[in-house]
Specification:
The mean pLDDT is about 90. α4 packs antiparallel against α8 and α15 runs antiparallel to α16. The strands form four sheets. Strands 6-5-4-3-2-1-22 form a seven-stranded mixed beta sheet. A seven-stranded mixed beta sheet has the order 7-8-9-10-11-20-21, covered by helices on one side. The protein is globular, with a radius of gyration of 25 Å. It has about 525 residues and is α/β, with parallel strands linked by helices. The chain folds into three domains: about 1-215 and about 405-460, 4-Layer Sandwich (Metallo-beta-lactamase, Chain A), CATH 3.60.15.10; about 225-405, Rossmann fold (3-Layer(aba) Sandwich); about 470-515. The chain has 16 helices and 22 strands. Bound molecules: zinc ion (ZN) (2 copies). One zinc ion binds near residues 15, 63, 65, 187 and 431.
């Protein structure tokens, strides 16, 4: 058995791992590389593995750095089974076509240049239509269900508490009489996040592939997020201005609504009007509303107390460009949530143009601002900024709250790893900048004595199979299957299902005999 790290190796984006066992290939995530140009160019390379040769594609969650190349994977011949949670598939329906649209625009821009230079024209990685097509192919699964992909491979999705539908994956692989258990953390959530549960605790693993986004950092505003938000809203309201919040459409926007809902129910803020001005955020919020079964207890309590943060009476969704423009007429008492989160594209630029020059307003950042973005420049204190070709003075208050991260910080990562009943034999560190990976590579062996290693891009590592099956384990498994058979036969199954189940039982019998014989 071997694993190859095709993405998120020595970097954060492009999550993609290939597990090869016997005659089966399992891909975990198929993400897009984001960030600087050299990284993004990897998206245009042919897949290092032939998509048609892959049997299963398992997606941990809907973020583009984990799912963004799925349409390309289908376009290039993938015909196997793809599985993800119900909520993930619904979010993919929003995110992937949008990503396809961005690819089309990007290529259009490049081709304009290419045409003028007499160079060859390029094709987009995939189109919005490609994306729509492939999302329909993905099977919807639920948390906590063990799913047998075949006689030797079983999987289970567990709540990762990162975004709606996000999962920690468990994979059991049987080779002969040995079983190896692998766990892929996916992106791990921070504790006490709105809407989602804390990350599920995992019992054991032979190998763990673990994210390290915040492997070298702690979240600062953890306990004060709500109080800081209250202050910003109250002070801006008192000055007679608006609060403009650049926010990502999925999760961050809904998290803000959740906190605003809490402040409303406690009567801690004045009567503000809240606007969601991003068609994608509106669509993502609708996905949230469709899946209340994914919410954690606190969210349930908040809704039971009469405040549904996604449907507050003072909450307005603006879909059309006209509706968006009307918000610009409002001079005070509005909170506007709009994308993009780093202020480089989308409707947020209009809201900045209308509010940045007014000292009574506030621009509130709630997410990471990458170097070179307008958001980062505003945070660094520039006196003016160019928007749509116009120089705009920065007079509004510029504030930031860093307590909205969707990722566990260093403490959270170590705590989650420490909660394994039986610690993994080896940990592979992924999804982090080199500094974050190096920090965890050092810390994990110190704290847990487990070997931790951050693989290189495209590195393949041979895995030693896990423990031998005991005859007792198998006997138990056999009895469990036999009991289920009884119920199954009473349900008048289709012939094909019947044959499949009979074959499983037969295989188990043979294995049991083999193990008993030693
Ligand atoms: Zn993520
Ligand atoms: Zn990620």
């Amino acid at each position: 058995m071997q694993i190859t790290f095709y993405g998120a190796a020595q970097t954060v984006t492009g999550s993609c791992y290939l597990l090869e066992t016997g005659d089966k290939k399992i891909m975990v995530d198929c993400g897009m590389f984001q960030g600087h140009r050299l990284s993004r160019e990897r998206n245009y390379l042919p897949f290092a593995v032939i998509p048609a040769s892959v049997d299963y594609l398992l997606l941990t969650h809907a973020h583009i750095d984990h799912s963004g190349l799925v349409p390309k994977f289908y376009k290039n011949g993938f015909k196997g089974r793809a599985l993800a949670t119900d909520a993930t598939v619904d979010l993919l329906e929003v995110l992937l076509p949008d990503s396809g649209h961005i690819q089309e625009m990007e290529i259009e821009r490049l081709n304009r240049k290419a045409r003028r230079a007499g160079k060859k024209l390029l094709d987009p990685i995939y189109t919005a239509e490609d994306a729509f097509g492939c999302v329909r192919e993905i099977e919807r699964v639920k948390y906590k269900q063990v799913i047998s992909l075949d006689n030797n491979i079983s999987i289970r999705f567990n709540d990762a508490g990162h975004i709606l539908g996000s999962a920690i994956l468990e994979i059991w692989v049987r080779e002969g009489t040995k079983q190896t258990k692998l766990v892929f953390s996916g992106d791990l959530g921070a504790k006490d996040k709105p809407f989602v549960n804390d990350p599920a605790l995992i019992d054991e693993a032979d190998y763990l592939v673990m994210e390290c986004t915040y492997g070298d950092r702690l979240h600062q505003d953890k306990g004060h997020r709500l109080e800081k938000l209250r202050q910003v809203i109250k002070e801006t309201y008192d000055r007679g201005g608006n609060v403009i919040i650049p926010a990502f459409a999925v999760e961050r926007t809904q998290d803000l609504l959740y906190d605003i809902g809490q402040l409303v129910i406690k009567n801690e803020i004045p009567p503000v009007q809240v606007f969601i001005d991003s068609p994608m955020a509106v669509a993502a919020t609708e996905v949230f509303m469709k899946h209340p079964n994914y919410f954690d207890q606190d969210t349930g309590k908040l809704i039971a107390s009469g405040i549904n943060p996604l449907a507050m009476p003072n909450l307005h969704f603006s879909r059309t460009a006209d509706e968006s423009r009307q918000i610009n007429e409002i001079k005070s008492g509005a909170i506007v949530l709009s994308a993009s989160g780093m202020c480089d594209a989308g409707r947020i630029k209009h809201h900045l143009k209308h509010n940045l020059w007014r000292p009574e307003c506030t621009v509130l950042f709630v997410g990471y601002q990458a170097p070179g973005t307008k958001g980062q420049r505003l945070l660094s204190g520039v006196g003016s900024i160019r928007i749509h070709g116009e120089e705009i003075a920065v007079k509004a208050g510029i504030k930031s709250i860093d307590g909205y991260s969707s990722h566990a910080d260093q403490e959270g990562l170590l705590e989650w790893l420490g909660s394994f009943n039986k610690l993994p034999g080896r940990v592979f560190l992924v999804h982090g900048d080199p500094e974050a990976l190096a920090a965890m590579e050092k810390l994990i062996p110190e704290k847990t004595r487990v070997d931790a290693y951050a693989p290189a891009w495209q590195e393949t590592i041979q895995l030693t199979p896990g423990a031998e099956f005991s005859a007792e384990d198998l006997q138990q498994a056999y009895h469990a299957v036999a009991a289920k058979m009884d119920a199954f036969l009473k349900s008048a199954p289709e012939q094909a299902d019947f044959n499949l189940v009979m074959k499983r039982l037969k295989d188990l019998e043979i294995l049991l005999a083999e193990v008993k014989a030693g």
